[in-house]
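Quick check before the chapter quiz. The format below is the same one you will see on the exam, so make sure you can read both the input and the output lines.
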Amino acid sequence: QVHLVESGGGLVQAGGSLRLSCAASGRTFINYYMGWFRQAPGKEREFVASIRWSGGSTYYANSVKGRFTISRDTAKNTVYLQMNSLKPEDTAVYYCTTRTVDANSYTDWGQGTQVTVSS
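Here is the expected output.
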């Protein structure tokens, strides 16, 4: 059973930075994508970024491109989301998630970590 645990959320002023971490366990992730989604109050959950575990190919939502960087440490089974130049509209609960490379949807989710950006 996959277990995903996020950490690193908090309160930051606009223009600041945070780094989220997602510790993954329960399987090997060679043929998986790891992703970050977020959900703001009153809004639907939206894609933020993803990374292919094998090879490290990355993908970003247009709203975060150039500001956020997703990376992984295969030795630690951990995925990171470095968030720079944060804006109040980045305020949301951020979720770590995973899916196989062949799947159409993400199947395993962490509990989420709150990110609040003050103006």
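If your answer matched, good. The chain has a mean pLDDT of 96.
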